[in-house]
Every structure is written in structure tokens, then in C-alpha cells.
Write a structure and sequence with these properties.
The protein is mainly α. It is 55% helix and 8% strand. The strands form 2 sheets. A two-stranded antiparallel ribbon has the order 1-2. Strands 3-4 form a two-stranded antiparallel ribbon. Helix 3 crosses helix 5. The longest helix has 35 residues.
Length: 171
């Protein structure tokens, strides 16, 4: 009766162990590089930060903003039926869509635009506060290159676009 090791050797290619080891080494070289790990950590932190900023905007900033609106505070409920199916007047966008009506939900669009600006403003305030607390600004000042007129960092010595010196070495 053949030994188990002999039977396995006949079923598997002779260089399988070497190919598997090479594939594993290639995978670890790719997955454990610094930039891949940094991107993974950055994405995880960005996801958590997105949740915090969304909650800040939805739960803290938007409720007082909705009180300032002179009309009905429910912007998401504003819509126009462009073509109905005869189901009559609809109370919500969901009811109209379920009935098969063609709906222009302009209230949702306006609400999302307001949300975008409020999130942008909140992120700007957070970036300014971080710059003040850490003495390292996230908001980088940019100027136009004297030669190609493209925007570059204020601290740049050479333009990244046209490679001209910004300190007047080229005359």
C-alpha cells in the first residue's frame, strides 16, 4: 500500500510549493506596502469622519436652518407631478412614484444642495480650527505662476507646470 505522501506527490505538480510561495510573497509585497496600508487606514478614518460630519450637519446645524425657512420646513416633501396615472393628488413623493407617476422632486434636490453647502462650511470650520490648534494649516495658500499663470503652492520655488523658478532666477 502506498504511503499518503507518495500519493499526494503524484497528484500535485512538483513545483506547486514554489509557485504557492512565490504567489504568497508577491501578495504580501503588494498588500503590506506602506502606501496600501496608509490608503486602507485613511479610508477607514474617512468613513468614520463622514459619519461624524453627517451627524453634525443633520442633527446640529440643519434643524436651526430649517427654522429660518419662511415656508414649510419639509423641503423633501416638495415635488411636482409631471405626468400622473390618474391616481389623484399624492401626499408624498413615494406615493406618486409607487403609482407610476413621473415626479420632479425639486425639494429633495434643494435639500441636498443645502446639505452640500452646510457640509462644506462645516469642513471648512473644522479645517480652520485644526490649523489654529496644530499651527499647521490644512488649507494651503496658492498663488499664480508668473509665467504660465497656473495655480501653485505659495511656498513653491519652481512651478510644477512650466518648471520656471519663482524667485526670479530666470530673466
Amino acid at each position: 500500500m502506498p504511503r499518503l505522501e507518495d500519493a499526494q506527490q503524484t497528484l500535485l505538480p512538483s513545483n506547486l510549493k514554489a509557485r504557492t510561495q512565490t504567489a504568497w510573497d508577491d501578495f504580501t509585497d503588494f498588500a503590506l506596502r506602506d502606501n496600501v496600508l496608509e490608503v486602507a487606514v485613511g479610508l477607514i478614518l474617512a468613513s468614520a469622519f463622514t459619519t461624524v460630519v453627517s451627524s453634525f450637519v443633520d442633527d446640529i446645524i440643519l434643524p436651526p436652518v430649517s427654522l429660518l425657512s419662511p415656508s414649510n420646513n419639509n423641503l423633501d416633501g416638495k415635488f411636482a407631478v409631471l405626468r400622473g396615472r390618474g391616481g389623484g393628488p399624492y401626499a408624498t413623493v413615494k406615493d406618486a412614484r409607487e403609482d407610476g407617476a413621473v415626479v420632479m422632486a425639486y425639494g429633495e434636490f434643494i435639500s441636498k444642495i443645502i446639505r452640500l453647502f452646510v457640509i462644506a462650511l462645516a469642513l471648512f470650520v473644522i479645517a480652520r480650527a485644526y490649523g489654529w490648534a496644530a499651527s499647521d494649516s490644512v488649507i494651503k495658500k496658492q498663488v499664480k505662476c508668473k509665467y504660465c499663470r497656473k495655480r501653485i503652492s505659495e511656498k513653491a520655488k519652481r512651478c510644477v507646470n512650466c518648471t520656471s523658478w519663482q524667485d526670479g532666477r530666470e530673466g
